[in-house]
Design a protein that fits this description.
The complex is a heterodimer of chains A (257) and B (451).
Chain A: E1 6-15, E2 20-30, E3 35-39, H1 46-53, E4 61-66, E5 69-70, H2 76-83, E6 86-89, H3 101-106, H4 115-119, H5 125-137, H6 153-166, E7 171-175, H7 183-199, E8 203-207, H8 211-217, E9 220-225, E10 228-233, H9 240-247
Parallel strand pairs in A: 3-8, 3-9, 6-7, 7-8
Antiparallel strand pairs in A: 1-2, 1-4, 4-5, 9-10
Chain B: H1 15-46, H2 65-82, H3 87-91, E1 95-97, H4 106-116, H5 122-131, H6 135-140, E2 143-145, H7 158-181, H8 186-191, H9 193-201, E3 204-205, H10 209-212, E4 221-222, H11 251-279, H12 282-285, H13 289-307, H14 310-321, H15 326-350, H16 354-362, H17 367-400, H18 409-419, H19 422-450
Helix pairs in contact in B: 1-2, 1-7, 2-4, 11-15, 11-17, 13-15, 14-15, 15-17, 16-17, 17-19, 18-19
The chains are: A alpha/beta (257), B mainly alpha (451).
Chain lengths: 257, 451
């Protein structure tokens, strides 16, 4: 049997201040083309897990393999090259607010271009064309030269998706991509992620708050509680009992339509 | 597993509270030390004016006086706290509380003051270990904690009750002692108003030394010049009395020099402070030992060079490159500008939203790209604001920096002031005011545009 696409082995993260254990001996594997949804309460370690995969946060212990390459052993320089293949979108969008949408989308190409040119704000013509195509794809082509902070929340997240698309990634990490959005906008954003997953064959790892969204879009769900894996399986397998186990006794499920 | 701090007592000790209490105690000690200084100052000042004391010889302060003063202020601090008159507790948001938020009784307060001293005996140590509290807390029934809003059945607030009188004492003492220390004298201020007026209106011409030792000099000559009758004869024509090396030295010439001093100092300062500000920002330098060391060195440079005033730097450079050389002024201004701007800049860098930084790193950006794409767009408005603010300071500083050999228009200003040519000084002042005003206007308009 071939090696899975992404392997996480015994991943542990301890924050030094206050000695908070965010992830505890976490292991799982992801096949290429999966849409994996990570669920769990706030503070259960979802964000930390995603950030450990592209090493925005350094893991304390454990190994992560991507296409057989051990990410946790890479030098900072090699890791920077590796990050080109790993797109990421964020709960708070993390756009450069005072820059244009175009500049924001082009930052997705920073890893591909020499620093000397990007420092002057120069990007190859090919990249600019790609940026326009990607903006068209997320339905924002006429907003290309508008400042990012003039857009609505949903539009800003779509800029975030266009920025991730610029990397032509194999893997997309989505850290609560719709938590700051209203339900209708949430679905539109999730559909872009679904499209990337189905049409471009991008493997997606998304953390979500709402189980209904996880069921609708995920091909597989893992659940974290206090930094430990408490569930790993298909969306249908989460029943009332499992739900209480993940979210606690008092929790009640909320639908997002 | 998180390890708890080692504790001998069964009840957990609130270390945060304990630290705040000890800080507040030292603050109280300091306050009473200041009060003691004020009282001693007033006593020595007025000792001879008390009629009976006039006939007594002054008592020399013995060598054991100092420990006595220190112990005395310590004791005062203890009693002020026990009696609930503590500025230190107030500063840390604490108060002395009786059970059920009642007003502490005088009896309990006095008991508390006495009990405090038992902390130095084994009994105090015993209570500290067994209860995790000081003996005065356990035995007096009064505890130190966050103050209640009001005492039950009373309209007075614990805060006002517990510190307002001490604060009033400190303020009154400061006014009284301060007035004496700076030799403030309203009588002189009023009696000599005509002499100052004569400088401005020019009825009488005074030798400046007359003001320093009025009785030793002959009466001043009468002239008809004054500050408010400015003489612009050297506005464009070089001033023959004022030989400034090979430069042509009309007022406007020197003003151009002065504006360029400010301009060069600001531009040089910005160019150098800009890169340094990233090296002096915690979030950019990361937590590696090398990054930490660079951060520390750069921050140290900012703090040391910023706290030495521009005037001092200019003296140094005036001796170095020549007294009265504008270059010396530029060097002095630049050095201070770098340090001051660097500190303001790097604090802005530290205050940025980390989100965009994360996004650029996640896309494979290098450290320089992070600065270019995630940091600079966030800080540029405040950078411009600080730069213009510094430009204002430099324009004003450059006009007076000649006082310590920095060159520029100040050279002429102080030359004629020393000679008593008030009408020429008046002309220079008018030009300085006009130029500073114009620069202020320009930078104000720029600020509106950019920020």
């Amino acid at each position: 049997m071939a090696e899975p696409y992404l392997v996480v082995e015994n991943l542990t993260k301890v924050y030094e201040r206050g000695q908070v254990v965010a992830l505890k001996d976490l292991s799982f594997a992801v096949e290429k083309g999966e849409f994996l949804v990570v669920i769990g309460l706030s503070g259960s370690g979802k964000s930390t897990l995603l950030r450990c995969i592209n090493r925005l946060i350094e893991p304390t212990a454990g190994r992560i393999y991507l296409s057989g390459v051990e990410l946790t052993k890479l030098s900072p320089r090699a890791m920077r090259r590796m990050r080109r293949n790993i797109g990421m979108i964020f709960q708070q969008f993390n756009l450069i607010k005072r820059a244009t949408v175009m500049t924001n989308v082009l930052t997705g190409r920073l890893g591909y271009n020499p620093t000397l040119l990007t420092l002057l704000g120069r990007f190859p013509k090919r990249d600019r064309e790609l940026a326009l195509r990607n903006l068209e794809r997320v339905g924002l082509s006429e907003k290309a030269y508008v400042r990012a902070d003039e857009l609505s929340g949903g539009q800003q997240q779509r800029v975030g998706i266009a920025r991730a698309l610029m990397q032509e990634p194999e893997l997309l990490l989505a850290d609560e991509p719709v938590s700051a959005l209203d339900p209708a906008t949430s679905h539109s954003v999730m559909q872009y992620l679904e499209q990337m997953n189905k049409e471009d064959g991008v493997t997606v790892l998304a953390s979500l708050h709402f189980l209904s969204l996880a069921r609708r879009y995920g091909t597989r769900i893992i659940a974290l509680k206090d930094g430990q894996l408490v569930f790993d399986g298909p969306p249908e397998a989460i029943d009332e009992v499992k739900f209480k186990e993940i979210y606690g006794e008092e929790a009640e499920e909320v639908e997002v339509r | 597993m998180a390890t708890k701090p080692l504790s001998l007592s069964s009840s957990p000790v609130d270390w945060r509270q304990l630290r705040r209490r000890s800080f507040s105690f030292f603050l109280d000690w300091l306050v009473w030390g200041y009060v003691a200084y004020g009282v001693v100052y007033l006593l020595t000042k007025y000792w001879w004016e008390v009629p009976l004391a006039r006939f007594l010889t002054p008592i020399p302060i013995p060598a054991w006086g100092w420990p006595l003063v220190i112990l005395g202020t310590l004791e005062t601090a203890v009693w002020s706290r026990a009696l609930g008159r503590s500025l230190g507790l107030r500063a840390f948001g604490l108060a002395l509380n009786a059970p059920a938020n009642n007003r502490p009784s005088l009896r309990a307060k006095l008991r508390r003051g006495l009990l405090w001293h038992l902390n130095f005996t084994p009994l105090g140590f015993f209570y500290l270990v067994r209860e995790g509290k000081f003996i005065q807390d356990v035995k007096s029934g009064l505890e130190v904690g966050p103050p209640p809003d009001l005492y039950p059945g009373s309209r007075s607030s614990p805060l006002r009750d517990q510190w307002a009188w001490t604060a009033l004492l400190v303020v009154v003492l400061t006014l009284w002692v301060g007035w004496l220390v700076v030799e403030a004298d309203l009588g002189t201020l009023i009696a000599r108003w005509d002499k100052a007026g004569q400088i401005y209106w020019g009825k009488v011409r005074y030798d400046l030394r007359y003001f320093l030792r009025p009785t030793e000099l002959p009466l001043p000559r009468v002239t008809s010049t004054g500050l408010l009758k400015p003489d612009f004869r050297y506005l464009l024509v070089p001033d023959p009395a004022f030989e400034l090396r090979r430069l042509s030295a009309s007022i406007l010439d020197l003003m151009v020099v002065t504006v360029f001093m400010a301009l060069l100092a600001t531009v040089l300062g910005v160019v150098l402070a800009f890169p340094l500000s990233f090296l002096g920002a915690r979030n950019i330098m990361g937590f590696s030992p090398v990054g930490w060391m660079i951060y520390f060195l750069v921050r140290g440079f900012f703090n040391v060079f910023r706290s030495i005033p521009t005037i001092m730097w200019t003296v140094l450079f005036a001796v170095w490159v020549g007294w009265g050389s504008p270059f010396a002024g530029v060097l002095g201004l630049t050095l201070h500008t770098i340090a001051a701007l660097g500190k303001l800049y790097s604090e802005q860098v530290e205050g940025i939203d980390p989100g965009p930084v994360e996004a650029v790193v996640a896309a494979g950006g290098s450290r320089l790209e992070v600065i270019r794409y995630a940091v600079i767009p966030q800080i540029s408005p405040s950078y411009w604001a600080f730069t213009l603010y510094r430009w204002d300071i430099n324009v004003r500083m450059s006009t007076v920096i000649a006082l310590v050999g920095g060159g520029g228009i100040g050279d002429m200003l102080f030359y004629h002031k020393d000679k008593g040519n008030w009408e020429l000084v008046g002309a220079v002042v008018v030009v300085i005011v006009a130029v500073v005003w114009a620069m202020d206007y320009i930078s104000g308009r720029l600020r509106e545009r950019i920020v």
